[in-house]
Every structure is written in structure tokens, then in C-alpha cells.
Amino acid sequence: QLQLQESGPGLVKHSETLSLTCTVSGYSISDSITSARYYWGWIRQPPGKGLEWIGSIYYSGSTYYNPSLKSRVTMSVDTSTNQFSLRLSSLTAADTAVYYCARQDGSGIYRYWGQGTLVTVSS
Amino acid sequence: EIVLTQSPGTLSLSPGERATLSCRASQSVSSSFLAWYQQKPGQAPRLLIHAASSRDTDIPDRFSGSGSGTDFSLTISRLEPEDFSVYYCQQYGTSPYTFGQGTKLEIK
Fold first, then answer.
1. In Å, how far is A62's CA from the nearest CA of chain B?
2. Do residue B44 and residue A102 have CB atoms under 8 angstroms apart?
3. How does pLDDT run across A81-106, given as a tens digit for each residue?
4. Of A67, B21, B49, B86, which has fewest CB within 10 angstroms of its CB?
5. Are A100 and A113 in contact (CB under 8 A)?
6. pLDDT digits (tens, 9 = 90+) for B17-28
């Protein structure tokens, strides 16, 4: 059974950089047969608000990001540990949100999600 | 980017009634790449419908999706108590992928 789990700090300071990791279990990101079908994505949700797609990464490391965040986002993947990561720089209060990692079907839908982790940006 | 506008913002209905949720796109959604998700408090979203009208695995048949181009809808034929939650549409035909602002389905 595929599971995803986000990890990282729950509190970060204004102007600093957020680093989150998503650990995948029950499936190998670099599976030789099926890995080509999937991307791995990050989506966030400010408290009481809607969902925002941040970006996605392929097992090979290729990425594509939301243009609204592109200048501050870096994603990476580590197939040896079956993890992928998000870095978001120059944080402001507007970045306070629940951050989800998810597996993205090649088309762009998300069937499997992590439980989400709340990140609060403090001043 | 494609902006998705969901209506109504809140829908108040009773169990057993029929619910129709709307999602309108600011431009045509490529290949009807439109999905619907259900989200309950404190949980991650759950995929219900993809490709505008394809129910995902294990989704009850009371959920159905329709539409094309810029107008899409999610219908729940007979509301069960567990259906009262927030619903989001998502377009994945054009990057950046975008979500609607959500419709809250509440018990009347």
C-alpha cells in the first residue's frame, strides 16, 4: 500500500527557507517498470483556504513549478532513500499553510496524498 | 493560468437530497482534464472524479461528473451523511495546475 509522509519544521522564521521531505513507502520512486508513469508533487493549503499546486518532480529529477512560486522553489528527489524534497525560500506569512506531498499520475491528478504538515511562518 | 470558479460557495441540503456543484473555467480545459476532490476536516483531499466524468476506484456511483470546455459539474444523486464536506475541482490540462476555491456542502 502506497503511503507518503511529510516531515520538516512546523515553525519557520520570516525570510528564512523552508525544507520539507516526503518519504514514500510501499512503492519505489525509481521502479524500473512503472516509474515513468508518475510525478511527485507538492500542494499547499493556507488555513481555511483552498489548494495551491506548488510543483512536481519526476524520478529523473526534471521539474516544473507554479510560475507564481518558481523564483523561490527548488525540488529534488533521492531515489536511494525513496524521498523527494521541497525548498521554499524568502518566507512570508503568506506561506503559512498545510503542505501536502502527493503522487501525481502523468496526466496531473493526485490519488495518493500524505497527511499534510502545518508550517507556520513567524515574524 | 486557468482560474476555476466554483459555485455555490456553500450548499445546504438534507440527507437523501440531490446535490449539484458547479465549476467554471476562465478558458477551455484541455481534453476535459478536470478532476473533483472531496476534503474532510483535518484530512487530505480524496480524488472522486477525473477526466470530467470518470469515477475513481471505489467511489460510490452516487457521485457523477459531467461537462466539457469551460463548464463542469459534480452531482451527488442521494446525499449520505458522510458526503457533507468540502469539494474542489482541479484542472490539469494546462500548467500551472489550478484548483477552484471550493464548495462547502453542509447539512440543512
1. 15
2. yes
3. 999 999 999 999 999 999 999 999 97
4. A67
5. yes
6. 999 999 999 999
